[in-house]
UniProtKB/TrEMBL annotation:
Originating species: Rhodococcus oxybenzonivorans
Protein name as it appears in the record: Enhanced intracellular survival protein Eis
GO term, biological process aspect, one: aminoglycoside antibiotic catabolic process
Oligomer status and interactors: Homohexamer; trimer of dimers.
Family, as annotated: Belongs to the acetyltransferase Eis family.
Start and end residues of each N-acetyltransferase domain: 8-157
Residues annotated to bind acetyl-CoA: 86-88, 94-99, 122-123
Matches recorded under NCBIfam families: PRK01346.1-4, PRK01346.1-5
Residues forming the catalytic site: 127 (proton donor), 402 (proton acceptor)
């Protein structure tokens, strides 16, 4: 495939293009790549899968996607294209190269038939126009461990062992798989991603120690320590837990790190962490940000893949200004399962595809979008019905974690 717009050629890459793609990535993300990192990305993406933009012989833009599987409410794994490493040279920005790359890439994604396309966004203002809505949410919190006391009602389930992560790989990966299958927005993690996590290359430690591990039968923590002028901080890279007891036991272990001054971790909106402490204010939020963005490629397939919390009958008009994946859809839910079909009936709800993407995993509310005039509903009870049905048990979670 090759198309040319405004003197720029858009085509799929070959193995020979990779040195130029890597240089573009290094410049755009201000991160030099080691040969190992390049080999890792090539293995993940496939050498001949990026879509690139050329000005003469120079590569001036690139985008890639990785085949992924995302958990949706109810636990099903849905196939998704994971868009990554999108770059346009600083010499060629704001003249439509990203749009040209995306047009080509998304046509290919559509032909592949996957119901979803996903990404994590470098900036929040770019991807809505392409039908992506922010879905999962996470906060970074910091705790001054010296003052953190556990609430007297919080039990001490025990069962945590200190491990070297690489030696505990089978247990850690098995727990991740359990966590991923029950967590909307979580993704199946392939072996080569695990290989990289356990290899723990020094170039990616951000000045910290190698990874330390805490392991429980139903959860684990991977963290590293960073020393600064105000003492040592334990930075949690991953905290995965599938039971309340393991969540408590792992936080007890972290808060027991006597010589560590501060613990930093990412938490989801309904994380019980503040309630474990006598003083919940000690869990200070330092940032709150979107994590996974979803673009629904096939509305009926995506809406039928998840389960719902109550019965629902609604006709939605979904507007897609980028591709033609929108239209009018009748969504009928009984006993949690949906049937979604195209219809000509007048809609009770009108919304853009990026808004439907934001509602899809259950972490955002239709009523809030309606208040912002980003969703129209025929009446207030329709908004209530949407929010009741689309809500999910675990409100939000994190991505691949690297
Ligand atoms: C999924 C990921 O990989 S996230 C990483 C994205 N990459 C980066 O952040 C690296 C640094 N930035 C870049 O490489 C480039 O600036 C890109 C890729 C973000 C944009 O590339 P460009 O070729 O300049 O974008 P292009 O000209 O095609 O713009 C497409 C649309 O997005 C808009 N847009 C582009 N960049 C931005 C921005 N930073 N903020 C808001 N809107 C933007 C344009 O106005 C345009 O809107 P329109 O089509 O509705 O008029």
């Amino acid at each position: 495939m090759t198309t040319t717009t405004g003197g720029i050629t858009i085509r799929t890459a070959t193995e020979q293009d990779w040195p130029k793609i890597v240089l573009l990535n290094e410049i755009c993300f201000a991160t030099p790549q080691t040969p190992e990192l390049t080999a890792f990305w090539k293995g993940l993406v496939g050498a001949d899968r990026p879509v690139i933009a050329l000005d003469g012989a120079a590569v001036v833009g690139a985008t890639m996607d990785i085949p992924m599987t995302v958990t949706v409410p109810g636990g099903a794994g849905v196939a998704a294209a994971g868009i990554t490493a999108v770059t346009v040279a600083p010499t060629h920005r704001r003249r439509g190269i990203l749009r040209a790359l995306y047009t080509e890439q998304h046509a290919r994604i559509r032909r592949s038939g996957v119901p979803l396309s996903i990404l994590t966004a470098s900036e929040g203002g770019i991807y809505g126009r392409f039908g992506y809505g922010p879905t999962t949410v996470e906060s970074t919190v910091g705790i001054d461990r010296r003052f953190a006391a556990l609430h007297p009602d919080v039990p001490d389930p025990g069962g945590v062992r200190v491990v070297r992560p690489v030696e505990a790989r089978p247990s850690i990966t098995e727990i991740y798989d359990r966590w991923q299958r029950r967590t909307p927005g979580a993704q199946v993690r392939p072996d080569n991603v695990w290989d990289r996590i356990f290899a723990d290359p020094e170039s990616e430690r951000g000045g910290g120690t190698s990874l330390f591990g805490l392991l429980h039968d139903d959860g684990y923590v991977l963290y590293r320590c960073v020393s600064g002028e105000h003492g040592t901080t334990a930075r949690v890279q991953e905290f995965r837990s599938v039971t309340d007891d393991s969540h408590i036991a792992l936080w007890r272990a972290l808060l027991g790190l006597d010589l560590i001054r501060r613990i930093e971790a990412s938490v989801v909106p309904d994380d019980p962490l503040p309630y474990l402490l006598t003083d919940s204010r000690l869990v200070r939020t330092t940032s709150r940000h979107d994590e996974l963005w979803v673009r629904i490629m096939d509305v009926p397939a995506a809406l039928e893949a998840r389960v719902y919390r109550c019965d629902l009958d609604v006709v939605m008009q979904v507007d897609d200004g980028f591709l033609d994946a929108g239209g009018r859809f009748a969504l009928r839910v009984r006993d949690g399962r949906a049937v979604c079909t195209r219809t000509e009936t007048d809609p009770q709800v009108v919304l853009a595809l990026d808004v439907l993407g934001s509602l899809y995993l259950g972490a955002h509310r239709a009523r809030a979008f309606a208040a912002a005039n980003r969703l129209w509903a025929v009446d207030s009870s329709t908004l209530d019905a949407l929010d009741l049905a689309f809500g999910s048990e675990y409100s939000a979670q994190m991505g691949w974690g690297f």
